[in-house]
Amino acid sequence: MGLLASGLTEYVSDDESLARFLNSSRLFNASGQVKHAALLPRNGETSVFRYPVDAAINSEKELWETGEKFCPREDSFME
Amino acid sequence: MPVQLTALLSTDSAPTQWPEGLSNSMSESGLASYEIKESITQYSEESFALFGSRNNLIAEIYEMSEECAKENWDGYGAVPISITTIWNTESFIRLLPVSISLPEIAPEPDGSISLDWIPGRYRTFSLSIGESNQLAYAWLEGSERGHGVARFDFQVIPGRILKE
After folding, report:
1. Torsion over CA of A37, B158, B69 and A23, rounded to 10 degrees?
2. ipTM exceeds 0.85, yes or no
């Protein structure tokens, strides 16, 4: 299995989870569910954060910090 | 919620509850006149509700487009929604038959607008409108699913989409 430039493996393994930070409330419906448009790829690609399921980093606080660092916007939503 | 407009002017049935001041001793022509007036009032109210909600949806599209008017509005390099895409979407919504419920809308990363009908977890229809006259759509119904592209001439909703 190859490695990406980030050092992560090319494929997402079973012990990883994914997060995507959403900057628009329009990507949620009235009941708070994420609309599919939030995860649609553009030119065949979409960007997500990968994090280990059972590691200490798997805390909501740290995820938010990561999102605010890389996708800064005041009204971000995390899914 | 779909509204049946076709039967609103029917005078075939008598009202079951009489308004104050009226009784069933009304003449036949008076009764017909009363029913027509009632029907017109109801028609007007329902028309207002119907086109009001359609106009609300169109206003929502303009609001959403304003929020997504800048490059990278999603933080992942999304394309802004153009005025052509807004006009195309507005044209499509204005042409929707009244029997079809209004969709949810969402911005897409390529600058298109997504129109979604989601009556249930396993029943959805989604349509993508961009700057061109090509409408990409996908549907799911139970274990069946499909997708396609239809040409939109801005005069009528493509039959293939209405069929799905």
Report:
1. -10
2. no
